[in-house]
Amino acid sequence: STNAVHKEPLPERAFYPVSPFLQGVRADDLARTEAKIKKQMVRHWHVVGERSSLVRQRLLASLQQVGAPDDLQIIPVIESAYRPYALSRVGAMGLWQLMPATAHSLGIQQSRTEDGRRHIARSTQAAAQYLLTQYQRFGNWPMAFAAYNMGPNGLAKRLKKQPWTLQDGLARMPVPLETRAYVEQIIGLTVLLHLDVLAFPDEVQTVEVTLQAPVDIESLERALELPESYLFHLNPKLHYSQYLKGSMTLHVPQSLAEKVVLLNHQQRPQYIHVAIRSGDSLWRLAKQYQTSVGHLRQLNPKLPSKLKIGSVLIVPAHGYARAKPVINPLLSQGRRIRYKVRKGDSL
Fold first, then answer.
1. What are phi and psi of 172, to 5 degrees?
2. Can you give the C-alpha Rg of the chain in angstroms?
């Protein structure tokens, strides 16, 4: 057509950075993805970088433990924007957006107090090992990323119908458009990071401390004068904000480790949550928790005139026998997800 607009090809660099992710990828693909992802990512990078600084120390250490390339730290940028609490509409969770069944197959367990998909080290090691397996199976990193996004069996079926090599170009990958865009994002971001167009900030240096119950994480934050929910951002594995039995481990800034242990001995929960049982009354609860009915009403301003069995009440922390776990405030509340029942499951 005489009206067609002529587009100049993207200029190609004389050289591209060395990264295992870029080996064998065509120069025109590198130039195109670099330009495309730069437009998408630069304005949001400071937010992603700030989130990453809280967990990348443990993430990088975990990658090194399983012999995976450091560049895999790029994947959580695309998967979750470095939000360990990210929960997709289909139930994928964590930095690496692992589905429940995938996490189970990789040996990631949930417990009453923690979710392994939000555990930085465990989820990183599992995801990295999975990606290494796909790399060995398909022979290059773009295909490994595609397998991570769409599933290896589906990818294998497509490749059987339409074989593909790196020299065919990313635009001709026999995968869904969503998966192709996913691969291009990783490749483009790899280029930008290795050219220092973007850079991860320094990681917050943390150490793991063991604390004896009772532990009230929100009280610890206030005593340490930390920003609200800071310890929950450092410890996304946690289900709860209070741990009233046994012991638990917590990652804290290295400079505060000794102070955290000391304060935990001094700091005790001021309030706990209890579920109303048959026969409970405000007078009886006030007597049990060494307070007054008026104080209970102050602590629970929306308290109905008649107590309802099963409803939750805030009371002063005098004894923990009836305490109901207080949920981590950063967890998604009231979200429903689809879950496919597997053999051996029970309610």
1. -105, 10
2. 25
Q: What is the pTM of this model?
A: 0.86
Query: In this structure, are strands 312-316 and 323-324 parallel, antiparallel, or unpaired?
Result: unpaired
| Phi, psi for 175 (deg, rounded to 5) | -135, 165
pLDDT higher than threshold 70 for residue 336: no
Given this model, what pLDDT does residue 8 score? 47
The 3-state secondary structure of 64-128, one letter per residue: HHCCCCHHHHHHHHHHHCCCCCCECCCCCECCCCECHHHHHHCCCCECCCEEHHHCHHHHHHHHH
In contact, 31 and 12? CB cutoff 8 Å: yes
Q: Per-residue pLDDT averaged across 59-71, rounded?
A: 97
Q: For residue range 287-325, list pLDDT tens digits in order.
A: 999 999 999 999 999 998 889 999 999 999 988 999 998
C-alpha closest to that of 56 among 40, 72, 34:
72
**Percent of the chain residues topping a pLDDT of 90:** 79
- Kindly state the average pLDDT of the residues 98-112: 87
Kindly state the tokens that stand for 167: 């020299």
Among the listed residues 152, 149, 56, the one whose alpha carbon sits nearest the alpha carbon of residue 98: 149
User: What is each CA distance from 340 to 90, 114, 117, 152, 270, in whole angstroms?
Assistant: 10, 21, 17, 19, 41
Residues pairing with 110 in the sheet: 115
The CA distance from 336 to 269, in Å, is 31
Query: Which tokens in the block code for residue 327?
Result: 């949920």
Res. 113 pLDDT band, cuts 50 70 90:
confident
Q: Is the pLDDT of residue 43 over 80?
A: yes
Angle (CA) 50 226 208, round 5°: 80
271-275, strands of its sheet edge to edge: 312-316, 271-275, 323-324
CB 219 within 8 A of CB 210: no
How far is it, in rounded angstroms, from Cα 268 to Cα 317? 8
